[in-house]
Amino acid sequence: MNKMDRLRVGLLLLFLCPFLVVAKEVKLASPNKVLHAEVSIDEHVSIRVLQNKDVLFAVRNIYLNTDQGYIPEKSSKVRSVKTKAVDRMVVPEIKEKRSVIAERYNELSFLFADKTKLEIRLYDEGMAYRMLTNRKGELTIFDEAADFVFAPSSTVFFQQDSNMNSDYEAPYVEQKIQDIKQGVTGNYPALVKIPSGTNILLLESDLQDYPCLWLEKGSQNLNAHFWNYPKTYNVNGNSKNRRQIVACEDYIAKTSGKRTFPWRVFAVAQEDKDLMDNQLVYLLAPECQIEDPSWIKPGWVTFDWWARRGLYNVDFKAGINTATAKYMIDFAADFGIRYFLFDDGWTYKEDLTKTIAGLDMKEVVDYATSKGVDVMLWVTYDLFDNQMDAALAQFSEWGIKGLKIDFINRSDQEASNFYWKAAKKAAEYKMVLDFHGAYRPDGLRRAYPNVLTREALVEFEQNGGTYKDNPDNRLMLPFIRNVAGPMDYIPGTMNNATKGSFRFNHDTPMGQGTRAHFMAMAVIAESPMQMLPDPQSDYYREAECTKFLVDIPVEWDDLVTLDSKIGDYVAMARRNGNSWYVAAVTDWTSREMKLELSFLPKGKKYKMEVFRDGINADIRAIDYKHEFIEVEGGEILNVSLAPGGGWVAKISTL
Fold first, then answer.
1. What is the C-alpha separation between 613 and 625, in angstroms, rounded?
2. CA 517 → CA 199, 495, 511, 513, 534, distances in Å?
3. Bridge-partner residues for 190, per DSSP?
4. Which residue, among 341, 302, 364, 383, has the nearest Cα to 550 in the 3D structure?
5. Of the listed 119, 374, 412, 461, which one is catalytic?
6. Residues facing residue 571 across a β-bridge
7. Cα(450)–Cα(61) distance, integer angstroms
8. pTM higher than 0.85 for the full model?
9. Which residues of 247-269 are buried (b: 16+ CB within 10 A; e: fewer)?
10. How far apart are CA 538 and CA 266, in angstroms?
11. What's the pLDDT tens digit per position in 317-360?
12. Is 67 in the active site?
């Protein structure tokens, strides 16, 4: 009897023998037979994951600590184990990476004596597990336990943070597990590179009515960590900090006793570049809850946050007023940009239904509509949550098409419920959303694809007063943060600086890197909603770059990841229709890269439009070269990147 036959017999016995204690490991293989999971149930559930015969990691002591005891119960007995195999194609509502996603996995489902279920899925791209409870009434959860066991010399990349009111904008810290001090906490996603070089990215999906999963360093391992439910708030603050937590309850969640819990996701990639193509968070999320989502329109955004402080060559006083808004809308119309966003400052005091003096919102929106531009508004979590119904009714009357919701700065159960409520209510009014001061994506965008993007990263804004958005941190984002879902990085600045010339300027931030670098980031930073940071006057001045930049699509039919290394350099090719966009960026180290056009039919000729670092880009970061070249499929391109440099091209048929 071979190994598979023994496994089939073992599973058959589990079906036939109720309340049989699982004394030995139950095994599961990924569809391609490379990843393997070994599940053992002793006092608590543990899962060990292998790549071929090599152990990658283990998750030990999986359980919920509740007011009804441990779930599953200690040393729990198993009623049955079922298996399932799925092989299908998924068509996403919004094409973030590609127009069709292959979903293939094998699943084990354990039913325990206390009616708890544990589902474990193995994809070729990783492992995920979740619990399902079947209890009457409400369940109070004090904690969810899980120990994530990696080799102590493994390296972790994650945002270390000890603040339950976090803005999720910390840079990534790279540190060996054995060197992290006990008690240090940080949020997801977290990337672990084990000694063999294999990457395991920790994520979660289908987060509903529950707090976000964080990490805490235990005496040896990384452990699950959650922020407790809030008890009191900073009630004397303003709308940006009034919802910050002062004190907490002794539980993390009160929730229905009959429910599914979030998926705990472990993306696995042998090569760094393969992380960028992982879609497990999306695949494990609930399917679309909007009956007809055809009204949802991804696109580029121009906004007034920095722009109103930096306009020139205009005949009006720039500010938050009707004249400034119309000028910015004209710019959007001139370059085919879909959205104009009013950022902070447009409301009268704290009333979302009224505007400040000098701003006629209805006039602005009507003007934008006549120009084919949609208008979005910035709101805070506190004000919007308190005024949601009245605000949305007024926004709809004005003709508003989207919202940027800011300063959530929490990841507890109450805050996570707000995301779902906001997405659902906004969808009822056919409005798209961008969350800022937000935790990482968790699958909400599949259920509500009107959630186009969110922050949860060090983005361009940080250049106004910090060095955080440097190329070293920026080049970790595609492998970590962007794998969880779209990120509102805000690429495309024309105010470019070398490492030596960079200076803080809050009103007109500079970008740390070359012109070509920031144009390439519009391809690399994945988001169905991309924002332009600079004053519109700058983009008019740099019209050659602007036209190419805003013509870069925000939806994609295909993705090919090229030679890339976490934190050092990134290269990829994305297809939209018949056109390919190829981009490469580097950290502060200059590089010579070879980009093979293997994704094009060999020998077929194409035209290529290129923006690359100019010969003096290492001295003046604004220096670039714009050229048109004929290339062939299969050709290898030699690309030179300046320190903090970049290269971006559009390839089209002749």
1. 6
2. 26, 12, 10, 6, 16
3. 202
4. 302
5. 461
6. 584
7. 37
8. yes
9. eebebbbebeeeeebbbbbbbbb
10. 43
11. 999 999 999 999 999 999 999 999 999 999 999 999 999 999 99
12. no
Task: For residue 195, give both structure tokens.
Answer: 């000694």
Report phi then psi at 317, rounded to 5: -80, 115
Q: Kindly state the tokens that stand for 548.
A: 């190419």
In the structure encoding, which two tokens stand for residue 262, read together?
């979030």
Rounded distance between C-alpha atoms, residue 45 and residue 112, angstroms: 11
Residues in contact with 130: Cβ distance below 8 Å, sequence separation at least 6, in sequence order: 118, 119, 206, 260, 261, 262, 263, 264
Determine the length of the chain: 654
Tell me the C-alpha distance between 118 and 101, whole Å: 26
The secondary structure of 212-234 as a DSSP string is: PPEEEE-SSSEEEE-PPPEEEE-
Dist CA 359 CA 558 (whole Å): 43
Which of 96, 144, 304, 406 is an active site residue?
A: 406
Ordered by start, the domain boundaries in the chain are: 25-284, 473-653
Upstream peptide bond of 533 is cis (omega within 30 degrees of 0): no
Tell which CATH architecture fits domain 473-653.
Alpha-Beta Barrel (3.20)
Q: Distance (Å, rounded) from C-alpha 361 to C-alpha 325?
A: 9
Per DSSP, the residues of 265-324 read: EEEEESSHHHHTT--HHHHTSPPP--S-GGG---EEEEESTTGGGT--S-SS--SSSHHH
Nearest by Cα to 148 from 276, 254, 265: 265
Nearest-angstrom CA–CA distance, 611 and 583: 10
Write out pLDDT tens, residues 362-400: 999 999 999 999 999 999 999 999 999 999 999 999 999
For domain 25-284, the CATH architecture is: Distorted Sandwich (2.70)
Cα 497 to Cα 612: distance, rounded to the nearest angstrom: 15
Q: Residue 539: enclosing H or E segment and its boundaries? A: helix 536-541
pLDDT of residue 24: 62
CA dihedral 9, 11, 17, 19 (to 10 degrees): 150
Strand partners, 173: 158
CA angle 342, 444, 353 (to 5 degrees): 30
53 Cβ neighbours under 8 A, 6+ residues apart: none
Residue 652 burial (CB count, 10 A): 12
5 Cβ neighbours under 8 A, 6+ residues apart: none
Residues in the chain where the model's pLDDT stays below 50: 1-23
CA 460 – CA 470 distance, rounded (Å): 9
Res 1: pLDDT? 39
Six-digit token pair at 156? 């972790």
Q: Which residue has the tokens 């809308």?
A: 329
Check if 461 is active-site. Answer: yes
